[in-house]
Design goal:
heterodimer; A: mainly alpha; B: alpha/beta; four-stranded antiparallel β-sheet; elongated
Chain lengths: 215, 290
C-alpha cells in the first residue's frame, strides 16, 4: 500500500469507525428520526477526517520525494471517495434492513444518498481549498463548517421533536419525487456528484502544483 | 561540457522579493557553490532547481529533462536537503525511513543507518524531539542514502558541530571524486563550503552578481598588505575593504593580475605583500559593490 495513502487512511478509518460505533446503533434501534438525523452527521465526520488528516500533513516533505503532485492528489481523493462510499453502503444496508419495519423507505434511500454526495463534494472542495490557501488559513473555516454542521443537525433534531409539522428533510417534495425510482435517481445523482468530484480532482492537481500555501 | 543542471532566465516573484533572470549551468561531477547574504534568493533558487517550487518564467532542466515531463524520475535521482527540513513530527526517525524507502528505486537502508550512526541520531527518537541540527542530519542521511546523482543541499552545514561538518565536507568531496555525483550547495556563510566548491556563484537581491571558477576568482582577488605611504595613491584608491592598522594597512583588490606588474618594485622592497583573499572577503566586497 502506498505510504501516503496508508498514513492518511488512519484518520478516515478512525473517523468511519467512530461514526458507525457511535451513530450506527441508533439506526438499528431507534425510530424514523434516526434515519433523518444520523445521515446528516456523515458530511461532518468526513470533513473532520479530512481536517485531521491535513492538520498532520507535511506537503513540503512529500515534495522532496519522487512523488508527483497528481499521485498525492489521487491518494487524497481516493480516501475521501472510499470513505464516502463505505459510509453510504452501510447506511443503505441498514436502511434496506429496516424497510420491513416501516422505519425507513425509498425516500430515506434517496435522502441519505443526497447527504452522502453533499459530504463527498464538500470534503473534496475542502481538500482543494487547503492546497490553495494552506491549512493554517483554512483551519478556522473547516472547523467552523464542522461546528455549523453539528449545530444544524442538533437544531434539526430539536425541531423535529418540538415543532409540530416541521418538515423532515427526507419528506421534502423533491426527495419524494426522486424516491419514485430511488435506484435510478440515486445513480443519476451519484453520476453528477462523481463528475463534480472528478472536476475538483483535476482542479486539485492544477492548484496543488501551482500553489505554495500548503507547503 | 556534460551539463547536469541547467536554468534559463528563471524568474520568481514573491510579494516582497523577486528572483530575477537566473541562467546557469552546472557540470557533471562538480561542486557548485551559491553564496550570498540572507535574503539573497539562494534558497528560492535551490528550491526551483530541485523542483520544489513553481517559477513564473524560465525553465529548469535536470539531466536534460524538465520536471513537468519527468518529475518522478528526476526526483529519484536528486537528493535535496531544504534549509529547514520538515517531517511528520509525531513519527520516529525509523518510521520516516520506512515511509520514504518505497519511493526510491535505489534506497540503501543499511547506508541510511550507517549515516544515522555517523551523525549520532537515534532512529527511535520522534522527529519532534530532534534538535534543528539533528533534523538537518536526518535530511542529509535521507538525501545521501538513495544513490542520488545530484545533491542539492541548502545550508547543509548549518547546525552541525565542527566534527560532523568536517566529515560532511570530506564525504561530499569523496563522493564527487569517486563517481558521477554532482553537488550543488548554498550558504550565507562560507564556512567550509568554499573549500570544496569548484565553481562559485554570488547572489544578491535575487540576482547573480558573479559567477566564476573558484581558482580563477581567488587568483584575481588578493588582500594587499602595505606600509603606509608605500602604495601609489591611485592604486590605494582602487582597494576595497581597507583596514588601517598601527603598523601598516591592507585592502582587497579584484584586479590583482593588472596590479602585479605595477607593484613589482614595491614587492621587491618588501613594502607591499599580497595574500590570498578568503571567499568571505570577496563575498563582502561584492555585496558592498552591488
Amino acid at each position: 500500500m502506498d505510504p501516503i495513502l496508508r498514513r492518511s487512511s488512519f484518520y478516515y478509518v478512525t473517523s468511519a469507525a467512530t461514526y458507525l460505533v457511535i451513530m450506527g446503533r441508533y439506526l438499528l434501534t431507534r425510530d424514523w428520526t434516526a434515519f433523518e438525523i444520523i445521515p446528516m452527521f456523515m458530511p461532518v465526520w468526513l470533513l473532520s477526517a479530512m481536517t485531521a488528516s491535513e492538520s498532520d500533513e507535511r506537503y513540503a516533505f512529500l515534495r522532496t520525494l519522487p512523488v508527483p503532485d497528481p499521485t498525492v492528489v489521487r491518494a487524497k481523493f481516493e480516501l475521501v471517495l472510499a470513505s464516502a462510499a463505505f459510509q453510504w453502503t452501510l447506511l443503505t444496508a441498514v436502511t434496506l434492513a429496516r424497510t420491513g419495519d416501516g422505519v425507513a423507505g425509498r425516500s430515506t434511500l434517496v435522502y441519505l444518498t443526497l447527504v452522502c454526495l453533499v459530504g463527498l463534494v464538500s470534503a473534496a472542495a475542502g481538500q482543494v481549498a487547503v492546497w490553495r490557501f494552506g491549512f493554517s488559513a483554512m483551519k478556522p473555516v473547516l472547523i467552523g463548517a464542522i461546528v455549523v454542521g453539528i449545530l444544524t443537525v442538533i437544531g434539526h433534531l430539536i425541531s423535529l421533536r418540538k415543532v409540530d409539522g416541521w418538515p423532515a428533510l427526507s419528506g421534502l417534495p423533491v426527495v419524494d419525487w426522486l424516491a419514485r425510482a430511488p435506484w435510478i435517481s440515486g445513480a443519476v445523482l451519484a453520476a453528477l456528484a462523481l463528475l463534480a468530484f472528478r472536476g475538483l480532482m483535476r482542479m486539485g492537481v492544477r492548484i496543488k502544483a501551482s500553489s505554495e500555501a500548503h507547503l | 561540457m556534460d551539463t547536469v543542471l541547467e536554468a534559463r532566465t528563471l524568474t520568481k516573484h514573491y510579494e516582497h522579493f523577486s528572483l530575477r533572470d537566473i541562467s546557469l549551468e552546472v557540470r557533471r561531477g562538480s561542486i557548485a557553490g551559491f553564496f550570498g547574504p540572507n535574503g539573497a534568493g539562494k534558497s528560492t533558487l535551490l528550491k526551483a532547481l530541485a523542483g520544489q517550487t513553481p517559477v513564473q518564467q524560465g525553465a529548469v532542466r535536470v539531466f536534460g529533462q524538465a520536471y513537468a515531463d519527468a518529475e518522478q524520475e528526476l526526483k529519484n535521482r536528486i537528493g535535496y536537503v531544504p534549509q529547514e527540513p520538515t517531517f511528520y513530527q509525531d513519527k520516529t526517525v525509523e518510521w520516516t525511513a520506512r515511509f520514504v524507502a518505497p519511493y526510491f528505486s535505489r534506497w540503501d537502508g543499511a547506508g541510511f543507518y550507517r549515516l544515522l550512526d555517523q551523525f549520532k541520531v537515534n532512529p527511535l527518537k520522534k522527529v519532534r524531539h530532534l534538535s534543528g541540527g539533528q533534523k538537518k542530519m536526518l535530511s542529509l542521511a535521507l538525501a545521501l542514502s538513495h544513490g542520488a546523482d545530484l545533491l542539492i543541499l541548502d545550508e547543509p552545514t548549518a547546525g552541525l558541530d565542527v566534527v560532523r561538518r568536517r566529515w560532511l565536507l570530506d564525504e561530499l568531496r569523496a563522493r564527487v571524486a569517486e563517481g558521477d555525483q554532482t553537488v550543488v550547495v548554498a550558504s550565507h556563510i562560507t564556512d567550509g563550503l568554499d573549500e570544496i566548491a569548484e565553481e562559485i556563484w554570488f547572489l544578491d537581491e535575487g540576482r547573480i552578481v558573479m559567477h566564476e571558477d573558484k581558482d580563477d576568482l581567488l587568483s584575481r582577488w588578493k588582500r594587499i598588505h602595505f606600509r603606509d605611504g608605500a602604495l601609489p595613491q591611485a592604486i590605494e584608491d582602487r582597494l576595497v575593504r581597507l583596514r588601517r592598522m598601527p603598523f601598516g594597512s591592507s585592502g582587497l583588490t579584484g584586479e590583482y593580475p593588472e596590479l602585479r606588474d605595477a607593484l613589482a618594485d614595491a614587492f621587491a622592497r618588501g613594502d607591499v605583500k599580497p595574500e590570498n583573499a578568503s571567499l568571505e572577503d570577496v563575498l563582502l566586497s561584492l555585496i558592498k559593490e552591488a
